[in-house]
Specification:
212 residues, Methyltransferase, Methionine Synthase (B12-binding Domains), Chain A, domain 1, Rossmann fold, 2 domains, 5 strands, 57% helix, binds cobalamin
């Protein structure tokens, strides 16, 4: 089975759409859980993409192919990851902040929250502070989740919280933030309520925030 996980990582790295679907299905059929496929196969592959991108060994078109591959595999995992524990934990509005197009991590968090019984309203990518505010007013969620993968877009999180404060709705919703450059210190700085480093932790934190 460990060889299978290695092949999954290689397929993400190589952006091989056909391979990834086949391998993901094979791993699941072979008894691997969706979480194992994710943690031992797909995410290590994406980590390597990040490393190679950083040192200039991979470029945007290739990273996009890897992202597409990852998304295709996640589609296969979604029904398993999002198999709800029963629901009724309340609504979460989630999105990637303005100027930021990274959505893989945000989608993963959304899937896991759904699996944990939250109703998820996903606003997608490049979400303006005003759009988050409108969604909070419209859906009255218990939680607002914001994702940012770029140091240059992190400030949009603080601006969104400011918009909630200005509109007098900040106290109605707990704000949870995440994404690779986000830290616990940053949470305090922007007056958010919590930070989680990965999708599993996001579920724990979300449950704690809603008093579960
Ligand atoms: C894939 C990718 C892309 C893809 C995105 C495709 C897509 N559909 O998402 C594309 C090619 C479009 C892209 C573009 C760019 N990218 Co890019 N990208 C990445 C890469 C390689 C992987 C990100 C990823 O999907 N990781 C896998 C997921 C599962 O992890 P994650 O996102 O961290 O999410 C987890 C946690 O952070 C957390 N989490 C995430 N969101 C949330 C939200 C909440 C509420 C919570 C609680 C938790 C949480 O839980 C998630 C699941 O466990 C990273 C490298 C890296 N190390 O992150 C660079 C990276 C983020 N990109 C980077 C850069 C520079 C860019 C570009 C500016 C490049 C350019 N010159 O154009 C553009 C910007 C485009 C834009 N405006 O957004 C830099 C950012 C540097 C920085 N610190 O600012 C990185 C770090 C690469 C690098 N090392 O240089 N990128």
């Amino acid at each position: 089975m460990s060889e299978m996980y290695g092949q999954l990582s290689v397929a993400v790295l190589g952006g091989s759409l056909k391979e990834i679907k086949k391998l993901t299905q094979m791993a699941l059929d072979g008894g691997a859980s969706a979480q194992q496929v994710l943690d031992l196969g797909l995410l290590p592959g994406m980590d390597e993409v990040g490393k190679r991108f950083k040192v200039g060994e991979m470029f945007i078109p290739e990273v996009l192919l890897s992202a597409r591959t990852m998304t295709a595999a996640m589609e296969l995992l979604k029904p398993l990851l999002a198999k709800s524990e029963g629901g009724g934990r309340g609504t979460v509005v989630i999105g990637t902040v303005q100027g930021d197009l990274h959505n893989i991590g945000k989608n993963l968090v959304a899937m896991m929250l759904e699996g944990a019984g939250f109703t998820v309203v996903d606003l997608g990518i490049d979400v303006k502070p005003q759009a988050f505010l409108n969604a909070v007013k419209q859906h009255k969620p218990k939680l607002l989740g914001m994702s940012a993968l770029l140091t240059t877009t992190m400030p949009r999180m603080g601006e969104t919280i400011h918009a909630l404060e200005e509109a007098g709705v900040r106290a109605q919703v707990k704000v949870m933030v995440g994404g690779a450059p986000v830290t616990a210190d940053f949470v305090a700085k922007i007056r958010a309520d919590a930070y989680a480093a990965n999708a599993g932790a996001a579920v724990e934190v979300a449950r704690a925030l809603v008093g579960d």
